[in-house]
């Protein structure tokens, strides 16, 4: 009996969502500790493709992650510009920290490298900042926290980003916010204690920043087991991609 040929593993192009859309078209990318996600957005931030995902490499060096991003590029080939949310401190398109990826990211010119590879204009910002762009109302002081492999943070005043905030690595209790609220804290202390720490962190950040609204995103929001209270919203991971369009508006 002749064996059936193996199915091809060559990725197929993502199916576009039917309709007419105003340009420019943005390829919005979210770099995470476990996955690299991307979606095409029209000028108003509306999705015009399904969200695509490839795993983050086991050893996430810059070269390995760039190869993963090239796979997303192949799935979503038609766009005018690129927005990237990256888990670390970003200045002028350079990655200065990447605590949950790899030390080789320190000082890496990610924005320039992607522009060279894809021949398109690129903007790179902190991932929590990009998620915040997709969530904030633009009124008053608004804080974004992302609960994932690590912890992300971004602070906005009247819709404008206050760059450089690294709340995750700020001392808190006997360690840092990320030590308690990132995946390491969840695994070490358990879900019940992790929820207790998150409730305390909400109160602490309110007292520190006097925020008018707090947005909590990231994959671990599904583990929240308490009502976070008034002026706190749980936002979807998709906001971290939709914010890629607003990132371009803020950079004008």
What does the secondary structure layout of this molecule look like, with pairings?
Blueprint: E1 26-31, E2 35-41, E3 52-55, H1 62-75, E4 81-86, E5 90-91, E6 94-95, H2 110-118, E7 122-126, H3 127-135, E8 141-147, E9 151-157, E10 160-162, E11 171-172, E12 175-176, H4 177-181, H5 183-189, H6 191-209, E13 213-217, E14 232-234, H7 239-250
Parallel strand pairs: 1-4, 4-7, 8-13, 13-14
Antiparallel strand pairs: 1-2, 2-3, 5-6, 8-9, 9-10, 11-12
Helix pairs in contact: 3-7, 5-6
Q: What would you say this structure looks like, in words?
A:
This protein is α/β, with parallel strands linked by helices and 252 residues long. The chain folds into two domains: 26-129 and 241-250, ATPase, nucleotide binding domain (Nucleotidyltransferase, domain 5), CATH 3.30.420; 137-236, 2-Layer Sandwich (Nucleotidyltransferase, domain 5). It is built from seven helices and 14 strands. The strands form four sheets. It has a five-stranded mixed sheet, with helices on both faces. Strands 10-9-8-13-14 form a five-stranded mixed sheet, sandwiched between helices. A hairpin with a 3-residue loop joins β8 and β9 (151-157). α5 crosses α6. The protein is globular. The model is unreliable at 1-14 (pLDDT under 50).
